[in-house]
Description:
18% helix; single chain; 2 helices; two-stranded antiparallel sheet; 14-stranded mixed beta sheet
Amino acid sequence: MRCYSFESNLFHMNRIFASVLALATLMMIRSAQAQTNTPLTKGRIVYEQLNKGGKANVTINGVQQTFDRPDRTQRMELLFNSDESLRRMLESDERPEAEVSQPGGASFRMVSASGAENIVYNKFSTQKKTEQREMVGKKWLIEDSISKNNWKLTGESKTILGYTCQQATTQAVIKSMRMQLNNGQMERTEFPDTVKVEVWFATAIPVPGGPEYQGQLPGMILEANIRNGQTVYKAVEISPKVKEEDIKEPKSGTKVTQAEFRKQVDDQMKMMIERGRPARNAAF
C-alpha cells in the first residue's frame, strides 16, 4: 500500500507540474504576441477620436442660453515616414446637430463640420506644419510652425496594439471660444484655456508623430487624453504598409494665417445665421 500510494502521488505531482508548465508556456507565448514592439519608421495608423458632448453656453442678445452638445466619434488615418506625417479624416456620414433657441421662440441649428477634406501635414526636420481646411466648398492653407510643450514622463507604461508605450503629461494652452449672438450677428471671442494632456507614446516607432502634439516626443503617440477625457484619441490599427507618395505637403488652397482663417470662419457663420441657415462651422 505504501508503494502504491507513493507512486500514485508521484504520478499526480507530475501531471500537475506538466499542467503548470504548459500554462506558463502559453502565457509566455501570448505575452510575446501581445508585445511585438516591431520597429517601424514608416507606416499607417488608424485612430478613433471621441469628442464628448455635454452642456454648452451661448449668449443671445445678452441672455445666456444652454444647449446640449452631442458626442461625436470619427476616424482618421496617419501616414508617416521618418521625417514626415500626414493626418486626414476617413469618410464619415455622422453630422451631429445641436439646436439653440433664441428669445421669442426662434431657433437655429448648429451642425458640426465633417472635416472630410481637412489635412494636417508635418515636416519634423524643419518643424513646419501645414493645414488644409475646407469651408463651404473653398480650400484654405494655414502654414505654421510645430508648437512645443513641456512634457513630464510619469514612469507609467502599458501595451497598445503590441507596442510598449510610456506615459507623458503636460499642461497645454489652447484657444477656446465664447459665442454671442446679438441681433443676428454672431460674435466669437477667443480666450486662452489651459488643459491637462496625457499621452502614451511608443519608442519602437521612432517618429515624433501622432494625432495631435506631433513633433514633440521621441516616439509615436498611440493614445491621447485631452481635458480629462473631453477629447480622446486611440490607435485602433497599425500597419507597416503605406504609399509614401501620399505623404506630401498639401498645395491646394488659399494661403492664410490662423487669424485670417478664423476671420473667414466668423464671417461665414454670420452670413449663415443672417440667412437663417445652419451654422455648419460652429465649433461645438
